[in-house]
């Protein structure tokens, strides 16, 4: 995370709030180990803006009440007057492939527990839920660790019944799932799928995998509108994954850049202050070389990075073309951009 604080520090972008969201987590009401109000406290402590507690709708532990609405009701009461968006959801997982449904109205609906995926998904859509495919290359079910090209699911994607894919779950990333998102114009999702205690799993220099939702307003409906319009990205480990038109402004909103020439030289000293949690791992692709290093450099989170650019003569402005290796804008494709300096 690049900071001693476990609290997410991520900027908004022009026109949108950048909401930090986790749409996949469990409590003692299915196979997790904490009470629902703990999930609320963890989210607030880490600086999340929205969560959905998605306990499995097919089963509960014997020790707790067999009412699938209870975890949401407990969390909702605890979240009252707190700055957290709580979304009613559930994991529908009665067969090999699991799906999360957000914005459900009733998680006790028996049809959500049907053993046929298409019937479960249809039941969720009847409630106007946003359904996404969970951990599609999960090794417990797919031994090669790859996302399958499931023709039944592809038809449901085409029909708008499956609206997103959890391309990242914890530290897992499935390039085949990313391909499907691009091919069928779906929404990118990344979540923690946390079952244990957050403080035990994530030290201050690490963070849970989250979905960045670029919303017009900080409300449940604001989250829904952004998800339906694919305005999301994923923050997993040191990586950002998402569309270029969202991640490029996020890059620039994270940085303050000051440039000046050393007196009597053609060396342009560029000081980059990174106010975000993101480390940006860059490669210089421009014609200008650096005086103080090779063409690879990292713009560290919550730190100043200085690069000295040899422009050969003093210019009134110039552009530095970069490849940002750890920002993925398509499967296998890192983000390209230019830092433009003017009025020197």
Walkthrough of the structure:
By secondary structure, this protein is of the alpha+beta class. The protein folds into two domains: 17-237, Metal-dependent hydrolases (TIM Barrel), CATH 3.20.20; 255-341, Immunoglobulin-like (Sandwich), CATH 2.60.40. It has eight helices and 20 strands. It has helices at residues 36-46, 70-79, 117-126, 151-158, 175-183, 198-201, 220-228, 244-253; strands at 17-22, 50-51, 85-86, 89-92, 99-102, 130-133, 164-169, 172-173, 187-191, 210-215, 232-236, 239-241, 255-261, 267-274, 280-284, 289-290, 296-299, 303-310, 318-330, 333-341. The strands form three sheets. Strands 1, 2, 3, 10, 11, 12, 15, 17, 19 and 20 form a ten-stranded mixed beta sheet that branches. Strands 4, 5, 6, 7, 8 and 9 form a six-stranded mixed beta sheet that branches. Strand 2 (50-51), helix 2 and strand 3 form a beta-alpha-beta unit. Helix 1 (36-46) packs across helix 2. The longest helix has 11 residues, at 36-46. The protein starts with 16 loop residues before the first strand and ends with a strand. The model has no long low-confidence stretch (mean pLDDT 95).
Radius of gyration of CA atoms, rounded to a whole number: 22 Å
Main sheet summary = 10 strands, mixed
Question: Which shape, going by the Cα principal axes?
Answer: elongated
Average pLDDT rating: 95
Number of domains: 2
> Which homologous superfamily in CATH is the superfamily of the largest domain?
Metal-dependent hydrolases
**SSE ordering:** EHEHEEEHEHEEHEHEHEEHEEEEEEEE
What is the SS-derived class? alpha+beta
* Total DSSP E strands: 20
Beta fraction: 25-35%
Total count of helical runs of at least 4 residues: 8
Taking the alpha carbons of the first and last residues, their distance comes to 33 Å
Helical coverage, percent range? 10-25%
The CATH topology annotation of the largest domain reads as TIM Barrel
Uncertain parts: none
CATH class of the largest domain: Alpha Beta
């Amino acid at each position: 995370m690049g900071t001693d604080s476990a609290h997410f520090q991520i900027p908004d972008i022009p026109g949108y709030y950048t909401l930090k969201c986790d749409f996949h987590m469990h409590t003692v009401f299915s196979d997790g180990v904490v009470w629902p109000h703990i999930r609320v406290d963890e989210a607030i402590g880490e600086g999340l803006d929205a969560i959905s507690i998605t306990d499995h709708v097919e089963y509960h532990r014997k020790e707790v009440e067999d009412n699938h609405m209870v975890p949401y009701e407990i969390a909702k009461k605890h979240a009252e007057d707190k700055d957290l968006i709580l979304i009613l959801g559930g994991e529908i997982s009665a067969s090999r492939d699991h799906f999360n449904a957000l914005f459900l109205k009733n998680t006790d609906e028996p049809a959500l527990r049907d053993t046929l995926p298409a019937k479960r998904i249809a039941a969720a859509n009847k409630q106007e839920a946003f359904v996404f495919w969970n951990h599609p290359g999960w090794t417990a079910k797919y031994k090669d660790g790859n996302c399958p090209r499931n023709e039944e699911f592809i038809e449901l994607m085409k029909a708008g019944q499956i609206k997103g894919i959890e391309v990242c779950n914890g530290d897992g990333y499935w390039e085949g799932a990313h391909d499907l998102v691009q091919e069928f114009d779906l929404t990118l999702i990344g979540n923690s799928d946390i079952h244990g205690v957050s403080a035990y799993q994530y030290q201050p220099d690490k963070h849970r995998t989250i979905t960045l939702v670029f919303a017009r307003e900080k409300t449940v409906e604001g989250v829904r509108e952004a998800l339906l319009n694919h305005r999301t990205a994923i923050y997993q480990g040191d990586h950002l994954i998402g569309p270029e038109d969202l991640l490029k402004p996020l890059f620039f909103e994270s940085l303050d850049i000051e440039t000046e020439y050393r007196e009597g030289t053609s060396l342009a000293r560029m000081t980059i202050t990174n106010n975000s949690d993101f480390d940006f791992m860059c490669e210089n692709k421009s014609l200008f070389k650096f005086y103080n290093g090779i063409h690879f450099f990292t713009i560290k989170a919550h730190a100043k990075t200085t690069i000295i650019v040899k422009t050969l003569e003093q210019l009134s402005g110039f552009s530095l073309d970069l490849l940002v290796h750890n920002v993925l804008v398509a499967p296998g494709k890192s983000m390209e951009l230019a830092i433009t300096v003017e009025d020197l």
